[in-house]
Amino acid sequence: MEIGGRELRLEPSTMLRFVETALRFMKNEITSSGNVHASEVEVPHTAQATEDEGDLELTDLVPLAFEVEMPETFFPDKEANNKRVIEERQKGIVSRYTDRLLDLFGKLFEMFVTDAELYHCAAILHRYVHGPLVSFCFREKELRCTEQVEQWNRTEELLQRVLDVLQRMHGDVVDAAAGLVGVRGEAEALSTQAAADAAEAAADAAATATAEGKEAEAATEVAVRAPQPTVSTALAAARALERHIAGAIDTSAEYLDHSEVYRQLMILQKKVKALTKSLA
After folding, report:
1. Taking Cα atoms as reference points, which of 214, 216, 219, 251 lies closest to residue 234?
2. Maximum distance among all Cα pairs of the chain, rounded to whole angstroms
3. Dihedral angle, C-alpha 208, 123, 12, 259, nearest 10 °
4. Could you tell me which residues come within 8 angstroms of residue 232 by beta carbon, excluding any fewer than 6 positions away?
5. What is the model's pLDDT at position 82?
6. Angle formed by the axes of helices 231-256 and 260-279, to 10°?
7. Would you give the distance in Å from CA 138 to the centre of its chain?
């Protein structure tokens, strides 16, 4: 992309490091500059001249007026108060930083509409801020961009990229469903029966192919409006993922049905089918 005669390009590794650093700051693993814990602040001591050289140097003298006793209520727990003030200040900084970061990504989306790596980084960010279902929405956009690469279904390397996105989408759905009572255990139990569902994959894909676009968009809208996982939103995402996997399998079968990547797609399809049944 060119702006003002200069070509702008998003470097995937740089973007990923940027998002990872931003998340560390948002998790308070990195504090904002200037914020130091009260216990780390050194109390100034008095200075005295040494007998030999007459130079001023800090010694182990106690702070001024340290020996003067004061009522306990005169000075409240200053360290605790300072800690609370620092924590509240840090929360405000993180909140404002998060808003600006999301605004930045919104502007980047306007400039780099088909950049799969940008949506990948956005999914990581939104997963932390808004949860796995919103992350799933950005993964769908990442998948769409990835499948726009020419002959993505004819080379193992490009199909592997599609598989990676689908697996991360599966992780989003699993995490969204994990908070729902009994879902994870039931999904694991159903996975033993998933092999029998492989024969139904082609029929299911054909039956849903015509409605794929509209239903996928509907699932996205539901997830954005209700980022907190519910059975209905998690089920909508699982069904959308089933359609995406079926499409990838059908499109690549003619060229890569003998490859390991294709086999992994089939395995993932069985897992998603089991998860969908547990949510239905």
Report:
1. 219
2. 96
3. -40
4. 222
5. 82
6. 160
7. 10
State mean pLDDT over 55-72.
44
Residue with token string 């994870």:
184
Across all residues in the chain, what is the average pLDDT? Answer: 75
| Interhelix angle 231-256/212-225, nearest 10 degrees | 140
Q: Is the pTM of this model over 0.70?
A: no
Of the candidate ranges 86-95, 207-216, 229-238, the one whose mean pLDDT is the lowest: 207-216
Query: The tokens of 139 are what?
Result: 């993964």
Closest CA to 265 of 185, 144, 166: 166
**Residue pLDDT, tens place only, 147-195:** 999 999 999 999 999 999 999 999 999 999 987 744 444 444 444 344 3
Identify the CA nearest to 9 among candidates 112, 146, 148, 109: 112
Position 244 pLDDT exceeds 50: yes
Long-range contacts of 39-44 (CB under 8 A, 24+ apart): 39/79
Confidence of residue 12 (pLDDT cuts 50, 70, 90): confident
**Structure tokens that stand for 228 in this block:** 């907190």
C-alpha to C-alpha distance for 15 and 245, rounded to whole angstroms: 27
Q: How far apart are CA 260 and CA 273, in angstroms?
A: 20
Q: What is the DSSP letter of 193?
A: G
Burial of 186 (C-beta count, 10 Å sphere; 0-12/13-18/19+): middle
CB hemisphere CA count around 201 (13 angstroms): 26
Written as one string, the DSSP assignment of 147-214 is TTSTTTTTSHHHHHHHHHHHHHHHHHHHHHHHTSTTHHHHHHHHGGGGGGGGGGHHHHHHHHHTTHHH
**In the numeric block, which tokens belong to residue 7?**
């070509």
